[in-house]
Write a structure and sequence with these properties.
- 52% of the residues lie in helices and 17% in strands.
- The protein is α/β, with parallel strands linked by helices and 215 residues long.
- It has an eight-stranded parallel barrel with strand order 1-2-3-4-5-6-7-8, surrounded by eight helices.
- The chain starts with a strand and ends with a helix.
- The structure holds erythose-4-phosphate (E4P).
- The site of erythose-4-phosphate has 11 residues, from helix 7.
């Protein structure tokens, strides 16, 4: 499973990149708004200088022709920009046009398998089902990943399933078990993915034993 970081914060991106296992970045308008006073295009350029994998840049228009206009500006920023479009009627129209031109598209705000079927037919590179937002409502978010995996495998669609709205390490485990191609993960969860208390206790014991034996 590829690991993307879900943030527009440069410090978090740098730290995750240093690990050497970061495959890409996703941003959205809410994440960019959290970076107070930052110019969107400047920030995307900075991110693309750090990470060479796909960097998702989301449009804010809701009409296909305006989405396409925004996309034409965003793809000029760097070769690894992926255009993120909402999974609505107009988004699908724009997705078909962009993917036919060879532009990578990430279809976001996907909440049901039939949306995923349609965006795959429209040539999307990624589809982003939102796991955490289902769980927030008392529904099982991971089910949609499993359903999309079955449909894509049945028909050999190449669209990659990008598990989004990941809130915990357990979500990341479940996404990997369900066969998601990618999980986009917030920085605090990436940090937790590396932690186990027994690793720290075990390491301390090894080093203590080693140091005692040296005396
Ligand atoms: C990423 O592509 C999504 O926009 C993001 O994962 C949404 O996460 P949230 O539900 O925690 O806002």
């Amino acid at each position: 499973m590829k690991i993307f970081i879900d943030t527009a914060n440069l410090d978090e991106i740098r730290q995750a990149h240093e690990l050497g296992v970061l495959d890409g970045v996703t941003t959205n308008p809410s994440l960019v708004a959290k970076e107070k006073g930052v110019d969107f295009k400047t920030r995307l350029k900075e991110i693309c200088q750090i990470v060479k994998g796909p960097v998702s840049a989301e449009v804010v228009s809701v009409k296909a022709d305006e989405m396409l206009r925004e996309a034409s500006e965003l793809i000029k920023i760097a070769d690894n920009i992926t255009i993120k479009l909402p999974t609505i009627r107009e988004g699908v129209i724009a997705c078909k046009k962009l993917s036919s031109q060879g532009v990578k598209v990430n279809m976001t705000l996907c909440f049901q398998p039939l949306q995923a079927l349609i965006v795959a037919k429209a040539g999307a590179t990624f589809v982003s089902p939102f796991i955490g937002r289902f769980d927030d409502q008392g529904e099982e978010g991971m089910k949609v990943i499993r359903d999309i995996r079955t449909i894509y495998d049945n028909y050999e669609f190449k669209t990659q399933i990008l598990a989004a709205s990941i809130r915990s390490p357990y979500h990341a485990v479940q996404a990997a078990e369900a066969g998601a191609d990618v999980a986009t993960i917030p920085f605090n969860v990436i940090e937790k993915m590396l932690f186990h208390p027994l690793t720290d206790i075990g390491l301390k014991r090894f080093l203590d034993d080693w140091n005692k034996a040296q005396k």
